[in-house]
Task: inverse folding
């Protein structure tokens, strides 16, 4: 590379020749370049020849994952995606770099649609809408080839030449900084791959979450929008269940459940983006520990803050992964190159700020879980951050990991015990009633349906005449009896800690028993014609009347509970 004060005519010519390309939105010219413009090339050391420096980048979507075309003072560099061979263990595509010196191009350089054909099988793909850019690039490459081989260079306006000459020192300094940043990033990437050539925990977590969702759907839970009852049946987090009923297992279980396919897809996309980096920084065991610690911490925060609610999802754990990145950048900031540290820190903080602001604007988002997971992940990350760079796993290193993981697990369990004990004393009647309503709604609906079905056949029982009519009625009554008995089993399964709500549920269950008894009596009457089964003690009419009285008593208990606990106004009816 020439000295920063040296300006060579060739360099001025190259910059002037490529200047028309700057009209395209896909082109960035030096010295107005940044690491983001280089895309994947920012992490790849690009060897420079003597006096060679970067003058332009072509990319349709600047960013870390973009695949750019690089223009230097000596050559054009582009990348080709190589798909893995059939049966290869690593199924990820790779990038292969190619380069062509301006001296070796020849006059056959032509634009072909959105590509530039350099001859000899060398084709440079441009952005899909780059037809005009392809023409301009081909023209510039032919001009540089002609100048390099014949010395015939197009005339450059003095004012343009002066501006370019003044910008070259900046371009040289920029190229040096970009080359240094690329070398640092490549070195850091090599350290990551040396520490963990493959990641295991991140894909395992994704598989577990997808499998849990698939199992829910296979059991009949709606794929897109399951209700609270469905989620609770599978292990969703809920303050009443955790703090009052002692179901602390819901805290970790809820991390693997999701409220629909969209919720699952967004969370798994975020985890797949951040998880591999953090797993390589911390190692698989420490990563798994901090992921679960953050997930439980987020679920615990959701349990502790605000009214009781049903919550599921990996978002608290994913925020914890982000918190672990921030912790690692704080603890190991001297071990990470500045070219890696600064953008990673900015991206992480930006993600946190955006999601916190978004969560504050959307009431349905469980902000407590996000912030609880973030804080827990940060603290766990501080405790679990390993030395860097990591070099394999020794017996001593494994022992340190186990000790650190045990310490974090102990802290999380202690926090859970304390918060759950405190939360049990803050549960309100409204919280208890909400949990009761979620449980009781299906059995109440079935009770009402069986009562209505019984009323529908009441007028047919005594009038049943012919054999076919009695057979049809008997079949309908048998179905009603089966449904009533099944609902009694569901009533017995209700877990209701509040004694007044328990009494209300018991009265409804008693009404269901009378419905079953009424159906049994009706079936006997249809078979025998004995009017005692219709009108006598234990007969259809007596049981139906008892069922009605019990439902009325249950309604009074329900109304009294709501009114006494301020859940309805005195003039309201439930």
Result:
């Amino acid at each position: 590379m020439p000295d920063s004060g040296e300006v060579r005519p060739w360099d001025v010519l190259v910059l002037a020749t490529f200047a028309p390309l700057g009209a395209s939105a896909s082109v960035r010219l030096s010295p107005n370049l940044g690491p983001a413009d280089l895309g994947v090339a920012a992490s790849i050391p690009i060897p420079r020849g003597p006096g060679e420096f970067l003058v332009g980048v072509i990319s349709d979507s600047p960013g870390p994952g973009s695949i750019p075309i690089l223009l230097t003072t000596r050559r054009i560099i582009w990348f080709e995606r190589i798909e893995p061979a059939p049966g290869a263990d690593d199924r990820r595509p790779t990038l292969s770099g190619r380069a062509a010196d301006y001296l070796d191009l020849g006059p056959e350089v032509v634009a072909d649609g959105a590509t530039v054909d350099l001859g000899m099988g060398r084709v440079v793909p441009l952005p899909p809408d780059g037809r005009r850019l392809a023409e301009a690039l081909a023209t510039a490459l032919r001009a540089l080839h002609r100048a390099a081989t014949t010395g015939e260079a197009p005339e450059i306006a003095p004012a343009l030449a002066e501006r370019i000459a003044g910008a070259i020192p900046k371009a040289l300094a920029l190229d040096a900084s970009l080359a240094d940043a690329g070398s640092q990033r490549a070195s850091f990437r090599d350290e990551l791959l040396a520490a963990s050539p493959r990641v295991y925990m991140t894909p395992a977590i994704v598989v577990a979450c997808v499998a849990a969702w698939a199992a829910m759907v296979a059991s009949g839970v709606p794929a897109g929008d399951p209700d609270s009852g469905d989620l609770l049946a599978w292990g969703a987090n809920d303050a009443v269940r955790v703090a009052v009923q002692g179901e602390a297992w819901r805290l970790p279980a809820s991390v693997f459940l999701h409220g629909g396919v969209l919720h699952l897809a967004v969370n798994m996309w975020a985890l797949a983006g951040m998880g591999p980096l953090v797993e390589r920084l911390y190692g698989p065991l420490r990563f798994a520990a901090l992921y679960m610690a953050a997930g439980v911490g987020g679920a615990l925060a959701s349990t502790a803050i605000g009214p009781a609610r049903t919550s599921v999802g990996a978002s608290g754990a994913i925020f914890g992964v982000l918190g672990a990145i921030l912790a690692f950048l704080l603890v190991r900031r001297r071990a990470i190159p500045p070219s890696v540290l600064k953008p990673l820190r900015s991206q992480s903080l930006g993600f946190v700020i955006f999601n916190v602001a978004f969560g504050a604007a959307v009431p349905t988002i469980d902000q407590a879980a996000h912030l609880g997971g973030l804080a827990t992940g940060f603290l766990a990350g501080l405790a679990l951050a390993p030395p860097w760079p990591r070099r394999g796993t020794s017996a001593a290193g494994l022992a340190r990991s186990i000790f650190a993981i045990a310490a974090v697990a102990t802290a999380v369990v202690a926090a859970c015990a304390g918060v759950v004990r405190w939360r049990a004393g803050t549960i309100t009647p409204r919280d208890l009633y909400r949990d009761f309503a979620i449980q009781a709604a299906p059995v109440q609906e079935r009770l009402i349906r069986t009562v209505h079905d019984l009323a529908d056949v009441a007028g047919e029982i005594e009038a049943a005449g012919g054999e076919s009519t009695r057979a049809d009625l008997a079949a309908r009554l048998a179905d009603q009896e089966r449904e009533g008995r099944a609902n009694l089993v569901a009533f017995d399964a209700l877990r209701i800690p509040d004694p007044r709500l328990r009494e209300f549920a018991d009265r409804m269950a008693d009404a269901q028993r009378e419905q079953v008894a009424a159906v049994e009596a009706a079936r006997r009457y249809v078979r025998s014609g004995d009017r005692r089964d219709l009108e006598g003690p234990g007969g259809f009419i007596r049981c139906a009347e008892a069922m009605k009285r019990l439902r009325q008593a249950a309604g009074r208990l329900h109304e009294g509970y709501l009114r006494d606990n301020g859940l309805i106004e005195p003039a309201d009816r439930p």
In short: The CA atoms of residues 16 and 157 lie 9 Å apart. Residues 9-182 form one domain. The chain has a mean pLDDT of 86. The chain is about 60% helix and 5% strand.
